[in-house]
What does this fold into?
Amino acid sequence: MSESLIMNAPLTAADGEPLKKKLAREQRLKQFKAIALVAPLGLFLLLTFLVPITSLLFRSVDNPEVVTALPHTSQLIRSWDQRGLPSDAVYSALAEDLARAKTDGTLADASKRLNMEISGYRSLLMRTARKMPLHVAPGESVRDHFIQIDERWGDPDHWHAIARNAKSWSPYYLYRSLDLRENKSGVPELTPVNERAYLSIFGRTMWMSLWVTVFCMLLGYPVAYWLANLPKRQSNLLMILVLLPFWTSVLVRVAAWIVLLQSEGLINSGLMALGIIDHPLQLAFNRTGVYIAMVHILLPFVILPSYSVMKSIPPSYVKAAISLGDHPFAAFWKIYFPQTLPGVAAGALLVFIMCLGYYITPALLGSPEDQMVSYYVAFYTNVTINWGMAAALGSLLLIATLALYAVYSKLVGTDRLSLG
It folds into this structure.
């Protein structure tokens, strides 16, 4: 009986505490220490990555100007059936809001926002606000007083603009970034051809990024293959030349390319001195110059991941295929090249994503027709101070980047499954 009691008794530590309880406490302590070590990194990512991205996405649909300046009008106009003109109550609310906004100083932002919808709305609001407060006799129509101030208050389109902005969020900036606009029914439709701009800008950005990626792949893959098959000492020495651009500022490298590529630059002067050309080639301030500079800057991002994958491939695979009677090129294409695809795909994705956000190189070396989306993000941020439009363009770039990464992950995952 005593032996069975001893067998069923809980195990204890040297201090008499149950061993299970003590181990659980030590496990919790280790987890707390691990969390404490990771917490600074998590806080850093939260403040420098998640918060800015969340703010960017929120700003792209944030629409507080009209609701802040015209709160009563925004509330009443939501019940408007969008047919004809609003009721006298809406006109009265607008008169009250304009009188208050004139003293509060909130009308400027609302007029700027509505002026994006209809040109001339700013002057309409400012002119009407100067007439406030209205003195309406009993039995008179507030609507008639507004139309007497300016006949545009009798135009339903101007009221549709207020109705579309009578909420604190709006897809307006996202629509504009895609050359869309809302019709009177609230359904998005393409803007007229002469007003479209951003779809061609996004198309140009994708097209230029694609070609830079292709050029980087064509130049970077042979260099990576060469470095991977050289003796280690020579490979390490040449790798320094590949990494050398990382030690120089992008701005300095672009300025150097301007010196090299301009009409009186070293390249044109050398070609003319050799008699190869008889007049300078236009290599700078056009797309050719942008391609040359961007490929030079981004080439290491293809070479490095491709090189790391190639170094892990045993050369005996290709030698075995050749010894079994396969042609060297066929052995390379069927045996070696498929094993390098993960590094090649990673380098291509990295270059393409970095190209999407390039600003300095096209701005300094390109013409106005060579500017990418990031140029217009900077323009709306620094020149026109239109944060909503800048955030919308940035959000679409972010979505495109995430979509590309998702496609890459799916392709790599599928490839791994098929190999397995």
Observations:
- The chain is about 70% helix and 0% strand.
- The chain has three domains: 2-61, 65-168, 199-419.
- Residues 221 and 283 are 25 Å apart (CA to CA).
